[in-house]
Amino acid sequence: MSSNLTGQLFDLLQLPGNEKCADCESPNPEWASSSLGVFLCVNCVGIHRSLGVQCSITKSLALDRWTTEMYQLMESTGNTKANEKYTKNVPICWRKPDPNYNCPDFYMEEWIRAKYDRKEFMEGNSSMQIYCHGSKDGELMKKERQGNKWKPRYFRLSVETGSLSYFDKKEELTPIKRLDVRNMNIVLCSQEKTEKQNSMEIIAPEEREKRGKIKKSSRSIFVYASTAKEIVDWYLSIRSARLKVLELNPSDPMVGMILSTDRIKEGFLKKSGPKENDRYIQRWITIEPNSFAYYENKMDAVPKNEVALNSSPGYFVSEGTDGKHPDEPYQFLVSTPDRVFNFSASDESDMKHWMNAFKEAIKNEPLESNQFKRISVLSATSQLSQISVSSSDPSANS
Ligand SMILES: [Zn+2]
């Protein structure tokens, strides 16, 4: 009976919706929640297991014992029906997690908890979505601008004033810094980047004086919270505040990307300077639609340089070298009309990944003429000399 049921369970995978994981859409799920009636991948089933049996009973399709009743629930529910129920009302501020694209484990976990444990997206439960207000305050640990120490700071997000401020202490009235949410970007961070769980990078334009000149660049502020829910609530609240303050149209298919822009890729890569005898030096590279930046270290407050990328003539990526480092393997060039950048990857596949990421960033139209113009703080600031920051221009909404 049991082996017969196993065969029937695998037959259910042929039905539309069941061919991919109910939560992350990875292909060929081999696990299931026998109480929720959904088919799952090996990663998501691990998260379901951590929710506890009162929320989800997890089983392997092939290895566990199935009863006829359990099979019948899988047959009558399945991924499509379950998702209609559990994700009926997902607010715009929730970016659906995609394991192929900047999705730290804690974000996937919070998505699954919100979906099945708290049932936040079920019909009638929208009052639970308090992050949709776009205002929030509380303590977060913040990394110092210089150095590696993290200190508690009191953060206050206000949709009324369109600002995110942080204070030395809750009672203080004057913030250490006040950021405009209109030209802010936020990125959830992996533990690999910040060495902290539940961390986030807030990126905002900054002007500072350097050798008597005003220099404009992006400023990264790193924070972490004690729980995954807390940092995800901050992330969703900031996205909600931007939705309201920028008066974006929720039905615009680009709106999710405008609320916050994930990086196409980031990591260490060797880069060499433009001079004849410049050597290759390890840099932390971040690539996003329309720009890339490089930093001396992965959690620096400001990049060494930010470079705009777009689909205009003169921007391209090519394998090989400009001849200065004939013995260096896996070299490639990123060309812009102003400068050619030399990079050296660690192996063939690393090189292909980086080249594809740069190509992805280049394929977009120039910032001035398309809807990407408000997406990226990095892009906006790197082009400040040519255009005003479009996020401060209300007519840019239309
Ligand atoms: Zn999954």
Features:
single chain, 398 residues, alpha+beta, Annexin V, domain 1, PH-domain like, 3 domains, seven-stranded antiparallel sheet, 10 helices, 25% helix, 26% strand, globular, disordered C terminus, binds zinc ion
What is the class of the largest domain in the CATH system?
Mainly Beta
Give the number of DSSP strands: 17
Instruction: Identify the strand order in the major beta sheet.
Output: 7-6-5-4-10-9-8
Q: Return the string of H and E elements.
A: HEEHEHHHEEEEEHEEHHEEEEEEEHH
- Global Rg: 24 Å
CATH topology of the largest domain: PH-domain like
CATH superfamily of the largest domain: Pleckstrin-homology domain (PH domain)/Phosphotyrosine-binding domain (PTB)
Biggest pleated-sheet summary:
7 strands, antiparallel
Category by helix and strand content: alpha+beta
Provide a count of the helices.
10
Q: Total domains, how many?
A: 3
Structural notes for this entry:
This protein is of the alpha+beta class and 398 residues long. The chain is built from 10 helices and 17 strands. The protein has 3 domains: 2-124, Orthogonal Bundle (Annexin V, domain 1), CATH 1.10.220; 127-250, Pleckstrin-homology domain (PH domain)/Phosphotyrosine-binding domain (PTB) (PH-domain like, Roll); 265-397, Pleckstrin-homology domain (PH domain)/Phosphotyrosine-binding domain (PTB) (PH-domain like), CATH 2.30.29. The protein has helices at 2-12, 42-51, 68-76, 78-86, 105-117, 191-194, 228-245, 255-259, 348-362, 377-382, and strands at 31-33, 38-40, 58-60, 136-143, 150-158, 163-167, 177-180, 185-189, 199-210, 213-224, 265-272, 280-288, 291-295, 305-308, 316-319, 331-335, 340-344. A 7-stranded antiparallel β-sheet has the order 7-6-5-4-10-9-8. Strands 14-13-12-11-17-16-15 form a 7-stranded antiparallel β-sheet. A hairpin with a 4-residue loop joins strand 1 (31-33) and strand 2. The longest helix has 18 residues, at 228-245. 39% of the residues are buried. The model is unreliable at 369-398 (pLDDT under 50). Bound molecules: zinc ion (ZN). The site of zinc ion has 8 residues, from helix 2.
